[in-house]
Amino acid sequence: MPVRSAYLDYQAGTPVLPEVFEAMRPFFMADFGNPSSLHQRGLTAREALAQARQQVATAIHAEMPDDIIFTSCGTESANLAIKGVAHANQRRGNHIVVTQIEHPSVLNSVEFLEKQGFTCTRVPVDSQGFVDPEAVRAVLTDKTILICVHHANHDIGTVEPIAEIGRIAAEKGIPLFVDAVASGGWLPIDVQAMGANLLSLSPHRFYGPKGVGILYRSRRARLLGIQHGGVQENGRRAGTENVPAIVGAGLACEIAARELPMRAAHVARLQKKLWDGLRQNVPYLCLSGPDPGPGRLPTNLNISTEFIEGEGQLLRCDFNGISVASGSSCVSKSLKISHVLAAIGLDHALAQGNLILSLGKDNTDEEIDYMIETFPKIVSVLREMSPMWDAFQKGVIQSVLAPRPTPA
Amino acid sequence: MSESHSLYNATVMDHFMNPKNVGDVEDADGVGEVGAAACGDIMKISLKIKDGRIEQARFKAFGCGSAIASSSMATELIKGRTIEEALQFKNQEVVDALGGLPPVKIHCSVLAEEAIKAALEDYLKRHPEKAPQANKA
Q1: Domain containing residue B87
Q2: pTM for the whole thing?
Q3: Are residues A249 and A267 in the same domain?
Q4: Of A377, A384, A386, A388, nearest to A316 (Cα)?
Q5: Min CA distance, A364 vs chain B (Å)?
């Protein structure tokens, strides 16, 4: 009898496609040349980079391949975008605008810059994670040199109104950086339509390899490199290029753009099935972020189970062959709940009962069925152990999600 | 399939997956509850005390793997102790008995100690005459 399992953490990483792996393979041992070398071996590698650059540019509707910079990961792309633009523009101004629920690679980069004399405004979001473009406009000053708004949120899946924010940014002549790490490969990316001057992607989220990141930068956005040395990536990012990973990234982008409609439809169907199944079978369960639909990343479900804690759920899922993630404080090394859940005003006890599920193109109905069958049992066992559940059943405390009317 | 790994050692995992003494003591002699859901950790300990010894100890917990394992182990460790011995209970005993906890999880064992102490204090508040004497016979 096959052991049942469900992999529901694809946003943390996806397997490399077989054709991507094959495309990468020659560059490890046969075509191992350094793209900076001027001999045949080097030129072969250089040509491979150029092709990858073109593939990425085409996939995201960039004007030119040279608008693409390869880094080591999505986090480095965010660091380069933010610190690179800040330093290039510091004579013009020192104010940066972000949303409260940006990824830590954005928020921590900005915090670092604040210690160096830059200032930052963190625009709040509503209870579903949406940022209001007018709220962004309201905080722009003549010292603002960068706006950072993510395309879709890694935690709660909210799809932000990028095109409107892009129009505001263009009107004010302020560069807009769009972190598309969570959305790349799952929502269409068109940097022209978005009005994005900078945009980051992480290929290992869409069946490319780890060890490579992408930063799109339109020539209109001035940027200084933050890693110095040689003149790779047009002087924007020194260091010998990870040729195999870049080759893989290029092909993964090309395939992702082509297959996106099918992949997105597949995960959206399973997302709906999974959410319907869980909420029908687990009482006192809530979803954070927008309802599944156009306002939400089709891969992501962020659920909180009342009266029990998240890491305990995660461990029991793992024991049953189900891989998930959690935003509870017990899971983070800093022992703080997810800043995203805090920003949307989620009740702290519910934030502690948090699980993040993310789907991929390889998920099957069988995996979804298995999760729907198994999770309610896990919840039952943990609730039996929980003093909160006990107190709730005795009427000592109320449910935050479904407060009982006071008895007559 | 490659071998399986776990976040915690085998003892901690066992006390998490198959915790001992889950529940509430009926007609408990002492009950202590510490922590808060908003912090991610609540532990409730209830005790049955007979002839100056802890005859039964049960726990309920809202918390992570370490929290549940610490509570389970704590109730195992204090069973059979006298009040005086139980008042000496230290979180390090839980950590040692579990074979170690990740540094960031040590506070779970501290909470277990506090829950035990709270249950004992509750008992002594109800029965001040049972407090251990300064000089033993």
Answers
A1: 10-126
A2: 0.93
A3: no
A4: A377
A5: 20
